[in-house]
Amino acid sequence: MKTGILRFPGSCDEVDAQLAAQRVGETVLLWHGDRDLQDVDAVIVPGGFSYGDYLRAGAIARFSPVMESVIEFARDGGLVLGICNGFQVLCEAGLLPGALLPNANRRFTFRQVELAVVEGETKFTSACPTDELLSIPAKHGSGRFYADEATLDQLEADGQVVVRYRPEQNFNGSLRDIAGVRNAAGNVFGLMPHPEHAVDALTGSTDGLRIFESMRSAVEGAHV
Amino acid sequence: MRARVLVRPKQGILDPQGVAVERALPALGFKGVSEVRIGRLVELEIENPAELEAISSQLLANPLIEDFEIELLEDAPAA
Fold first, then answer.
1. Are B59 and A104 inside 8 Å of each other by CB?
2. pLDDT for position B74
3. Is the dihedral of CA A194, A58, A117, A43 positive or negative?
4. How far is CA B51 from CA A18, A59, A114, B48, B70, in A?
5. Which of A29, A100, A42, A98 is nearest to A70 (CA)?
6. Pair A214, A123: CB distance under 8 Å
7. If you average pLDDT over residues A75-81, what whole number do you get?
8. Looking at the partner chain, which of B16, B60, B64 has a beta carbon nearest the beta carbon of A99?
9. For residue A205, what is the DSSP state?
């Protein structure tokens, strides 16, 4: 499996995402000004502050040349994972439902959270042990997931809510404790917490690795 | 032509900036202020004002979470 990790001006977690993806296959960094996705099997839109978060988080990055290719890749069924700012970019691009608003606590907040895996049979969570929480860090200023009530009901009914915060850990005020959602087709997933920062026992948890292992299964299973 | 686009959070969406300002006012002695909501004012010069609607809905505002109003202004008088 070959994973492409996007790099925008203002990205800051692309190297950790690359190191995490290297544990399950090959990787390549993809510059925001290039359109060539270099035949990757999966794309990661990483965390950071693309284009300085000007206007709204993710609003400008959505129009970069590389995102035109990513949108096409996603429409063709390619696997796309958006982490933190990457989640914001995918929402702004219309590849994922909803939007991410400034945290209800009005602070940039960095803490370890435990995520409940609501949907364990997705291309991004199939390697997660059932009934276990994923302990991974969250760090953001605009992570409050919002969609209107009808959309939230539909997302829940269709199994598109993939991970949730424990209610007492929902520091950003996300509606229905939603930490990550997928698209209807199931090939695009975004979440605010950072699985790429939880892949080595040295930093306290390796739970994030499950997300990358799930993606490898999805890609390599498809090749059989 | 000069134009302004006023972008504001949709009704019913929590606006933490507005809440922070509202809570700061009593400390300055201003009582009786409520429902503070903070948006964005975009001022621009535009050759084709017919494009403003698309510009606003595609970039300046995110229609899922924000409303916008377009205001066309007279060209500034020569100084």
1. no
2. 76
3. negative
4. 40, 19, 46, 6, 11
5. A42
6. yes
7. 98
8. B64
9. B
Residue A44 and residue A83 in contact, taking contact as beta carbons nearer than 8 Å: yes
**Residue B71, phi then psi, degrees to nearest 5:** -125, 120
Residue A171: closest CA among A207, A197, A152, A145: A145
**Chain B residues touching residue A92 (CB < 8 angstroms):** 62
**H or E segment to which residue A188 belongs:** strand A188-191
ipTM of the modeled complex? 0.84
Region B48-58: mean pLDDT is 96
Segment (H or E) for B44 = strand B40-45
Where are chain A's structural domains?
2-223
What stretch of H or E contains A14? helix A14-22
Instruction: Answer whether A44's CB lies under 8 Å from A25's CB.
Output: no
- pLDDT band (50, 70, 90) for residue A223: low
**Predicted pLDDT of residue B76:** 59
pLDDT band at B78 (very low <50, low <70, confident <90, very high): low
Higher pLDDT, A189 or A132: A189
Under CATH, which number does the domain A2-223 receive? 3.40.50.880
Give chain B's domains with CATH numbers. Answer: 2-73 (3.30.1280.10)
DSSP-assigned letter for residue A186: S
pLDDT for position A155: 98
> What sign does the dihedral A130-A159-A152-B18 (CA atoms) show?
positive
Nearest CA in chain B to A151: B64
Residues of A in contact with B65 (CB under 8 A): 99, 101, 146
